[in-house]
Design brief:
Shape: globular
Helix content: 25-40%
Strand order of the largest sheet: 3-4-5-9-8-7-6
Mean pLDDT: 76
Structural class: alpha+beta
Number of helices: 13
């Protein structure tokens, strides 16, 4: 009898121990995709689980809980940092839809609690107020928040939770009231703060001639452009910086292009991210820092590659985000004009200034960009001689003319104080006329730029100092609706120092310092650009 009792007790102990062992094993197991495909337990296994036995292994479980976990390896932290650094502008549309879905669920949940029982009309939310802004303003806000370091998202004019958080961060950092949407005054302050940095980089938005994508280029550093059948390359003189676009329209999948980009020679990947609509790579290519961004749509993959020497890290690291987020691979329905606010009409009117008796005319580079024909009223065809992408200037020349009264250049540092803004407004602004207009204004010198104290009524225009000498050029201003005028940043002058350097570089015979006082209007002419 004692032997039978002992055997029976041993059998019970074994039976109790089985579910305990399984529970401990399950608790330590790392579940992945395999777990989702596991079969269901058999029905006859259910009665074997006894409630009293689960509490028995309390001591071993406590020991396991008290056992300290191993500290994470430094390599894992580095990998995580690289991954975060490589966080791509992926799945923009999907992310917005996901965000919208979350908000919809939140609103539905809120409605079920009776919060909407009052029936009173709700004021417009952040999204509605933001989307009511003109499209050019929405784009400018996203661009400027990117330059300020608050926003990391595509500059497409759309609303997202990420954008709302960026606006909150900006408000917190500047000790404004945190509302999630910048007021008119806050947008103006933001634009004014980042404008000198944009100007310092020679920032310009352009259309990729090879792929049609919208690209942001720091033209001060990327001065060369080469175009191929599948992409374009903007680079510095010695190749220290390279910004390249690419297009794969063979029907290859995004994943295939992602793997192909990873395996290119001399690339060492430190971070990557592959989504359903986009991917990003970060690392080194030879001795250059590297970022690659790829996007897929309708069987085509378009992308952007940024490469720069490690010696340029101090300059380029702050510019990587603006370049990456300004890139719009498929800008259908979003023209470059809408992205920059710059007009791209078939016939463009602006102002030029005669700067030599030999027929040299100084004007804004954007005014004559892409022109098939450039003419000066009553004088004829003008040829394009040179341009300065950093300063935003273009030099024209009209031959065989006489009696020109060129403007004399003011002394360095003269673009400050009271002066006169002179230009030829658009024909629509003067009932089809072509009269030269002038307005008194004042230029203010800051640590990084010289600006006008009030928005110019026309642009481009010439700023003449009090002694009637050319002291600066007001670049072509973005066209905005009347409701947005108060949000425009101050007009930044191209100072006389930049003008003199540009003209001397191209051997323009400058007017003597004595100049022609009182001849300011005579030295200004209308410039007409005709595009295809």
């Amino acid at each position: 009898m004692r032997v039978l009792t002992a055997v029976w007790a041993a059998l019970l102990a074994v039976a109790w121990g089985i579910p305990v062992a399984l529970a401990q094993s399950d608790g330590r197991e790392t579940y992945g995709p395999v777990a989702a495909t596991r079969g269901k337990p058999k029905p006859d296994a259910k009665p074997q689980v006894a409630k009293p036995q689960v509490a028995k292994p309390a001591a071993p479980a406590t020991e396991a809980a008290q056992k300290p976990r191993a500290a994470p390896k430094p390599a894992a932290d580095k990998k995580t940092a690289d991954k975060k650094e490589a966080e791509p502008p992926t799945d923009g549309k999907a992310a917005r839809e996901k965000s919208a879905g979350k908000k919809k669920n939140a609103r539905e949940k809120s409605n079920t609690t009776g919060s909407a029982a009052a029936g009173a009309p709700k004021p417009p939310g952040i999204r509605e107020t933001y989307m009511a802004l003109p499209h050019a303003e929405r784009l400018a806000l996203q661009f400027n928040l990117t330059w300020a370091g608050d926003y990391r998202g595509a500059a497409d004019g759309e609303f997202s939770d990420k954008l709302a958080e960026a606006m909150k961060d900006y408000q917190k950092r500047n000790k404004f009231k945190v509302t999630g949407l910048l007021s008119t005054e806050e947008r103006t302050l933001l634009a004014t703060a980042v404008a000198p940095r944009q100007r310092e980089a020679g920032w310009q938005m352009t259309e990729d001639p090879a792929t049609g994508a919208r690209v942001g280029i720091p033209a001060k550093y990327a001065t060369r452009l080469a175009t191929g059948p599948a992409g374009s390359r903007w680079s510095s003189e010695q190749g220290q910086l390279q910004i390249e676009t690419f297009r794969v329209d063979t029907g290859a999948t995004l994943e295939a292009v992602f793997e192909q980009q990873k395996s290119l020679p001399r690339r060492r990947i430190t971070g990557s991210n592959l989504g359903s609509e986009a991917f990003t790579l970060a690392g080194m290519q030879g001795l250059k820092r590297m970022r690659v961004y790829g996007y897929a749509r309708e069987g085509e993959v378009r992308g952007l590659t940024i490469l720069y020497d490690q010696a340029m890290e101090g300059t380029m690291d702050p510019l990587v985000a603006p370049i990456a987020w300004a890139y719009l691979p498929f800008p259908q329905g979003l023209s470059l004009a809408a992205a920059t606010g710059a007009p791209r009409r078939k016939v463009e009117y602006g102002t030029g200034v005669f700067v030599s008796a030999a027929g040299h005319v100084l004007t804004d580079r954007r005014l004559v960009d892409g022109c098939q024909v450039i003419t000066l009223p009553l004088l004829g065809h003008a040829e394009r001689v040179a341009e300065d992408r950093v300063a935003g200037l273009a030099l024209l020349r009209i031959n065989g003319v006489s009696g020109i009264k060129p403007a004399a250049l003011a002394a360095d540092g003269a673009a400050a104080g009271d002066g006169t803004l002179i230009g030829v407004p658009d024909p629509k602004a003067q009932a089809g006329g072509g009269d030269v207009s002038s307005v008194k204004t004042r230029a203010v010198a800051t640590a990084s730029a010289r600006t006008l104290d009030s928005p110019p009524p026309f642009s481009p225009a010439a700023f003449f100092s009090g002694d009637a000498k050319l002291a600066g050029i007001v670049p072509l201003r973005d066209i905005v609706s009347s409701s947005a005028v108060s949000t425009m940043p101050p007009a930044v002058l191209v100072p006389v120092e930049s003008i003199r350097t540009f003209l001397q570089k191209h051997d323009v015979p400058l007017e003597p310092a004595a100049g022609n006082p009182g001849s300011t209007k005579e030295s200004v002419t209308r410039v007409i650009c005709v595009r295809k």
